[in-house]
Fold this sequence. Notes:
Elements: E1 15-19, H1 24-35, E2 39-44, E3 53-54, E4 57-58, E5 60-63, H2 69-83, E6 88-91, H3 106-131, E7 138-145, H4 156-176, E8 180-187, H5 195-199, H6 202-210, H7 220-231, E9 242-245, H8 253-257
Parallel strand pairs: 1-2, 1-6, 2-5, 6-7, 7-8, 8-9
Antiparallel strand pairs: 3-4
Amino acid sequence: MEISIENSIRLDGQVVIVTGGTQGAGRGIANAYLAAGAKVVVCARRDPQSLPEVDGNVAEFYSLDVGDLEAINVFMAHVSTTYGRLDVLVNNAGGAPFADAATASPRFSEKIIKLNLLAPLNLAQAANKIMREQDSGGVILNIASVSALRPSPGTAAYGAAKAGLVSLTQSLAVEWAPKVRMNAIAAGPILTEQAAMHFGDQAGIDAVHKTIPLQRMALPADMGHLCVMLSSPYGAYLNGACIEAHGGGERPAFLDAANVN
């Protein structure tokens, strides 16, 4: 399953950070910005086997634990010194394994909330310090989840953190405007290299596809194209928005229970 799109949006000369940008949705996001001509810095805790690259435009990798506030400040200083600006921050790093809320340890829940809510806040604060000093300002995008908008059984702390991330986006959009624009993307299931871990074998993945009105999960490229649009002049009046990118959502269970076609 592939999507071909002509990239008519150009972000030449802009500097973009994508956290968790070495694999999965983050890599798709990084690739989209590279295709638009931006200079992209990706960060993750582990060195990648390869870097995002499009037509010879290669991302820079920086090893970073987004939960380490001191390391975040050093990282942002590196980007500012190396490139002289920061135009876009995409807070993509996040996630959570399945955990029964009745037995999950407090330490586990704290780590999930730190990764999915506090880390994006700390990164946004550091990015804002750079962006507000630029004539052009900047854009910050928070990758949230549909788990923020509906029950999230098995990942309760994650859903709560992502709901907090949406609320945080709305508040910072008011506080930091007009210099910095903030938006969130509530993403539905995304078909990445880790899909089997969440959905099982190919039969399980196919079953998930069928629950979505568009009959497929999002591709990493879908997230990338949306981020580029939101960062461009085409998204110039979007601020404090939560874009639901879920292919139409999920068919309500009661329709199947009542045998309604």
